[in-house]
Predict the structure of DNA-binding transcriptional MerR regulator.
Amino acid sequence: MAYDDSYKFKKVISIGIVSELTGLSQRQIRYYEERKLIFPDRSKGIRKYSFADVEQLMDIANKREEGVTTREIRNEMTKEIRQKMLQGQMNAHFRFRA
Amino acid sequence: MAYDDSYKFKKVISIGIVSELTGLSQRQIRYYEERKLIFPDRSKGIRKYSFADVEQLMDIANKREEGVTTREIRNEMTKEIRQKMLQGQMNAHFRFRA
DNA sequence: CGTGTAAGGAATTCTGACACG
DNA sequence: CGTGTAAGGAATTCTGACACG
């Protein structure tokens, strides 16, 4: 982890390939971006995704199938981020203690 | 290794991005393919590269700068493959021996 | 709300060729 | 041999909108 991570987070994949990889339509992928569930980079207006984005989209697809709305998914994401930031603070505090 | 490898070897990157990543021109990248140094997949005629291909291209770029010809690079690659196949046979023979 | 589709335009990629050397 | 470039065409992607619900 952390070195090969470059691959996972590098935004290099265009939407057509992401569509093939996830099974989602390009319309769906763009809509999830509109709903702030996914954040591709842009290269001259053209969206570029990472493998991490692809994974994220597969999670979204699963939740949507279960009937979870984009708003709910968005809320869950926000919570998870909150958790991770807290975790980060905890680590900063106790790393050299225990 | 082996699980996250999926990212490294998945052919999902188009030539424009590969060009940005490697600093090579599209012309050069296509030429190295013509010389059998690199083997992208095709999606409706459009070349798709993996991160492994990108690394390979950076190696090629370095060798070219040193004045190594594409033919020589090709020969070196062939030798390396030969080595690895031999290594594979060795492993198959002695894995459960030592 | 979530997704499909037709529409017109902009950006990307492809090949074969000519050029230089 | 290795790489640049102009040329014309094909495939991709983009946005805003209408549709259904």
